[in-house]
Amino acid sequence: MSHEGHESDHQSLGTETGVELETGPTNAGDGNAAADTPPMLHGSGRTYDIYAAVFFGGRRRRVFGRLAAQSGARPEHRVLDVGCGTGYFTRMMAQAVAPGGTAHGLDPSVEAISHARRTTRLDNCTFATGVAEALDAPDGSYDIVVSSLMMHHLPEALRPRAASEMFRVLRPGGSVLVAEFRPPASRIGRRVIKALTGHRTMAENRVDLLEPMIRAAGFDQLCSGGIRPWTYFIQARKPAAGP
Question: Is residue 243 part of a domain?
């Protein structure tokens, strides 16, 4: 199902922040040795960050700032950033939950985590190697879990496990936000993305599969939307504990 078809099933709720928001109907330290995710090659951390800045057309900070706002993060919240890469979004989340809150980033790439640690000057922001499908965290230990541009790197068979792990480590009533690359609708646009990235994964990224996967993990109160130029997100909540 295309993104355009997906949008027709939702009510548009455009906001002052420029987020194209949609709502849908309401409906479970370091890496684990048994994990299956290979580390992604980020090149040098600085090179990756420059590439990301160019890829977002100079809008990277605006896009991730809006994602941070959309996540619902507040001071004193505990945040986990799954697949944090060089830590760009993790640092923004750390700023969003200050004072009193913390942000912790996980990524399977030792090089990416080393770069994130070197370039971070925030006392409430930490990093460790780890994988999405086997999060090294106790049940219910975070208020907010975020993940940006990570899911398409996982083998399809591991994606539901990653969503279930996000559900597990959230407290009841906690919020998840998963942001992904939304390919252009046109064939020419997708060819350009393939040429820029060197592979088909992003050019053919199925963002329409995120919503059913998040629902299947146990989340409810889903909303979804887009932030130009390339970003699609799903936000949802873990049901609150019963009386």
Answer: no
Q: Which of 233, 181, 207 is nearest to 55 (CA)?
A: 181
pTM for this prediction: 0.74
pLDDT at 208 over 60: yes
CA–CA gap between residue 122 and residue 187 (Å, rounded)? 42
- Residues 6+ positions from 25 with CB-CB distance below 8 Å: none
In whole angstroms, give the CA distance from residue 66 to residue 48: 21
Check which CATH number belongs to the domain holding 154 and give it: 3.40.50.150
- Within-domain flag for 107: yes
State how many domains the chain has: 1
- For residue 12, name the pLDDT band (cuts at 50, 70, 90): very low
Beta 220-227 vs 170-181: how paired, if at all?
Answer: unpaired
- Domain extent for 7: 3-237
pLDDT in tens, 64-84: 899 999 999 999 999 999 999
